[in-house]
Write a structure and sequence with these properties.
Blueprint: H1 3-6, H2 18-27, E1 36-40, H3 47-59, H4 72-75, H5 82-89, E2 95-99, H6 106-116, E3 126-131, H7 138-149, E4 155-161, H8 169-172, E5 176-179, H9 185-198, H10 205-215, H11 219-232, H12 240-246, H13 252-264, H14 268-280, H15 285-303, H16 317-336, H17 342-353, H18 357-366, H19 380-396, H20 398-405, E6 408-412, E7 416-421, H21 424-431, H22 433-447, E8 452-457
Parallel strand pairs: 1-4, 1-5, 2-3, 3-4, 7-8
Antiparallel strand pairs: 6-7
Bound molecules: zinc ion.
Length: about 450
């Protein structure tokens, strides 16, 4: 059986999050507990697994009759009695899992309200697990609300959702809310250690930390990597190097230095050639972004004197800072991108077309004329306002200010402000909503007026 299914958490102790473990132990230490729960948080953090564990805690035959405060051990389901095993196997008739996405109408909820009146057949309590509850229609929510207002004593509700803001407040207020967040690295390593112990694998802690990084909070991905690496380890100790080798990460350091060289030279063609070479070797783009950021972050700390400066590239402090900003956006985008390398490609394109950040800074210091020589001479006032605009913009967005440096002022009549540029990509960059807002805000700061900003190609 694959690790993921085999090691899906079966009791509280096996859940990643220390906070959720503590909450559940505390809620179920008494014999009275809430009749409705709301589990919120992103996909893949174990909401449904936890809901099944709760169904088992409530119905497990082993500790049913304990009166008074229960110990953590007594709260845990035994995972051996009929109730526990049937819930684990998904064939307990009193535990109903409903997918809110495909049963979203009033008829389904009415049906649920009818059936809920009947006592459980064998379990102590009927447990209704409604997944993706935010998908229910308004009518269905109203029907559900009536049930939650007067629930039969034999029923427990567990509502799960990735989008809590779409669940009506009247429902939320009747539930005990547990929010699931991404496991910390330490918590994740704890879960991987559990699997590796159960499988009798020899693993170095560093290897598990590396897997946790690669899996980025997803238990499913993490155990999959562990399983794949265990297959090539041939019973030997699983080391960080082995994990890296499996994921073609050895030698990534060389790629990082080469890429930083290409980027500091703004050599787009060579940067793309390198990217292609890496892709052929199976280097994961998202992981490469992370490693680039780690390297730059170290350089940043080196440049400001917190760490020893060991940087092997020529990037300046403002460039490093700017590159980190752009990379963190690329990293965020890569999570949702259909093609995982695309955000990295966009980053390279944007970086190589931006005016060097260092230039912006040195010009500020040397106070040289930022307007290109070929620009027709403007009236003094107009020239000054454009210079002031660059300075003002720099406070909000260095990159937009950088682009402005190679543009000029076409006209300004107190109402509209027209910027001229030779490059299509500069026009597009300045017309981005965020850039436009920066320009408008900066101009308002300077002139006290709301100006119409437009960009034209010369
Ligand atoms: Zn049991």
């Amino acid at each position: 059986m694959v690790f993921y299914r085999k090691y899906r958490p079966q009791k509280i102790e096996e859940l990643d999050s220390a906070e959720i473990r503590e909450t559940l132990y505390s809620v179920f230490s008494k014999n009275t507990y809430p009749h409705a729960f709301l589990f919120t948080g992103p996909k893949g953090l174990g909401k449904t697994s936890t809901a099944r564990i709760v169904a088992k805690i409530i119905n497990c035959e082993k500790h049913r009759d304990i009166k008074g405060k229960k110990t953590e051990k007594e709260i845990e389901p035994c995972n051996h009695c009929d109730q526990c095993t049937s819930i684990s196997n998904g064939n307990n008739f009193d535990i109903l899992e409903i997918d809110g996405a495909s049963n979203r109408g009033i008829d389904e909820i009415r049906d649920l309200r009818e059936k809920i009146k009947l006592s459980p057949s064998r379990a102590l309590k009927k447990v209704y697990i409604i997944d993706e509850v935010h998908m229910l229609t308004t009518e269905a929510f109203n029907a559900l609300l009536k049930t939650l207002e007067e629930p039969p004593s034999h029923a427990i509700f567990i509502l799960c959702t990735t989008e809590p803001n779409k669940v009506p407040g009247t429902i939320v207020s009747r539930c005990f809310h547990i929010n699931f967040t991404k496991a910390t690295q330490e918590e994740f390593v704890r879960s991987l250690t559990r699997v590796s112990k159960a499988e009798d694998l020899k693993t170095e802690k560093d290897a598990l930390v590396e897997i946790a990084k690669l899996a980025d909070g997803s238990f499913r991905d993490g155990v999959k990597i562990l399983e794949e690496v265990s297959l090539i380890s041939n019973g030997k100790t699983i080391t960080k190097d082995l994990v890296d080798e499996k994921f073609k990460l050895l030698g990534i350091e060389g790629y990082i230095l080469e890429m930083l060289d290409r980027l500091s030279e703004k050599d787009r063609k060579k940067a793309f050639e390198l990217l292609e070479k890496m892709q052929k070797q199976g280097v994961d783009a998202r992981f490469f972004i992370e490693k680039l950021m780690e390297n730059l972050h170290e350089s940043l700390l080196g440049k400001i004197g917190v760490l020893e400066d060991k940087a092997k590239h020529k990037l300046t402090l403002p460039e490093i800072k700017r590159m980190l900003e752009m990379l963190s956006k690329a990293h965020m985008d890569s999570r949702y991108s259909l093609l995982s390398q695309m955000p990295l490609e966009f980053f390279i394109i944007e970086w190589t077309e931006e005016v060097p950040v260092a230039e912006v800074v040195s010009e500020k210091e040397s106070n040289s004329d930022p307007v290109p020589a070929k620009v027709p001479v403007k009236a003094d006032g107009e020239e000054k306002i454009f210079k002031d605009l660059i300075e003002e913009t720099k406070k909000h967005n260095v990159s937009v200010a950088g682009v402005l440096h190679s543009c000029s002022l076409k006209s300004y009549d107190g109402k509209s402000f027209i910027i001229e540029t030779k490059y299509k990509f500069h026009k597009e960059r300045l017309e981005e909503q965020k850039a436009k807002k920066v320009l408008q805000d900066s101009l308002k700061e300077l002139t006290g007026k709301e100006l119409e900003v437009s960009v034209i190609l010369s």
